[in-house]
Amino acid sequence: MHGNRKADFSKLTGSVNAGIATPYAKASQKAGPPELPRRLIYLGELLTTTVEEIMIIDTDDHTDFQYIAVSYRWPMYLSKNQQLDEGTRDAFYRGYPVSRLHPLYADAFKVAAMLGIKYVWIDALCILQGTDQDWLAEGSKVASVYGNSVFTLAYGDGPDQPDLDPGCPPYHESCRLEEAVRAASRPFLQGKLTQFDRRNPEALYSWLEANGNFPTRPEGEIDKRGWAFQERLLSKRILSVTKDGFFWDCCSLNAADCRPLGLRGDFSPKFRDLEERRLKTLLLTGNVSREVALARDMYLLWRRIIEKYSHRNFTHNRDRLVALKGVVQRFQTVIKEPCFLGCGKAMCSGRWCGSVIRSWTAQT
Predict the structure, then answer these.
(1) Where in the numbering of this chain does the Heterokaryon incompatibility domain appear (predicted)?
(2) Following DSSP, what letter does each residue of 221-270 receive, concatenated?
(3) pLDDT at 94
(4) What is the 8-class DSSP label of residue 29?
């Protein structure tokens, strides 16, 4: 506990590799055959962990691609030559220098290369921008894209960055890999150890909490974004890059760079991580626990999902329904009947269905 956290980052990498080998690799099979994205980013043969050139490829309906998906906030300044569109498509399919892309994408390629994964999915590079037809086709598969990835690399938010115009309010930038590494390199304890009454449980808890013994993933702007909701909920495994370090979440384990073997207990706000794990297990495996075995319990569970989702922000409000499509489909599989806004026949009786509809219309 008194050592430097940097040494534990390699252990976290081991935990990631171990987590990838968990049975949840096949957890989503009950929801139907895997639906791959039309395109993936190919990193090359990975002779080193430095990726200098990438290439966009068509998957051609093959199902043997192992890839990671990236969940992030779009950078405020993303130039046209850093997106896939009609003007850049030929260049990306021939091969494109990583040095010309946003640094966030280069970070994602580095993480994939460190783990020996040759393919990455990033929406800005794998969905043809500026065309409604491709967006409708690929956007509707987003839940499957994240659900079938080896894991999702989720970028939390770093410190506020000043805008180019001093009169504008500060905005959030996604955390860079180097920021997370610096955070993971900080020692657990700094300065002198404070004295406390070891016979007093509250004093012991306060001392442990003050010295970083209860790490939890910090919340940021990405936790307010609409599309990120199902990206996170339907991902089998998530590696979060944050200003406080690295955090790993899956159906069986929560870990951090300072606790690579797992976190004991849930110290997240309002038991966020525990509830997310329960929802994830239900949606990905279809295994109904005793707590939600009854129809009314399933309704309450769905109600909690809607309440959380209704507070998310969208750049375009028209995305509000399609950005939850994957969750609705998985929930329909769990209750084994068609859904209306996520509610099955038994749940669509007057008061219940009405309350769900009101929760939607209040936002739209």
Answers:
(1) 67-231
(2) GGGGBHHHHHHHHT-SEEEEEETTEEEEEESS-EEETTBTT--SS--SGG
(3) 96
(4) G
